[in-house]
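User: Can you help me understand a structure? I only have the sequence.
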Amino acid sequence: MPRAPDELDALTCPLEAGDVVCRQGEKATDLAILLWGRLGVYRDGHRVGEIAEPGAYVGEAAILDDRAFTASVEADVPSAIVRVPAERARRFLASPEPEAKALRTLASRLGGANERLVDLQEALSIQRAALAAVLEGLADLYAAGHDEPDADTLRMTVMNTARRLVRRYGRGDLTDAPIRL
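Assistant: Let's start by predicting it. Here is the structure, written out as tokens:
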């Protein structure tokens, strides 16, 4: 039997920007369903995504696995959700249509996480190579300091090596701002 609009209104939780829907590490006590608005998803304090599709589930993995939330979720803008207590949410998610939606959502999130992981691995590989080149340049400078008795020649060697490193890595790849000599 369909619920009357005033019953749905009674279940609706309005959110202001910054209101927390769930906190990473806390035990899941309810499933949230986004009615409207936009929610930010944060893992260890870093924004990792957003939820903006009306009807999207929030915390379904924690509810299904009976575990703590793996991320924090908070409203980016004024929003509204419906909170469904955990036991009722488990029964709801066990029915075919909601279960299929939850699985599609989890599969999509996993795909996005895998893409992000590949991107991070590629960036880490580039940073490792750059760091190795910088360390090699510093080792060359150290060796030049011990091998070169002439101060002017040593100064030129240091400046040339530093210029080479800055030309290659002074664009901010390894620093917050370009290095200038």
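Now, to help you interpret it: Confidence is low (pLDDT under 50) at residues 175-181. Residues 34 and 122 are 34 Å apart (CA to CA). Let me know which part you'd like to focus on.
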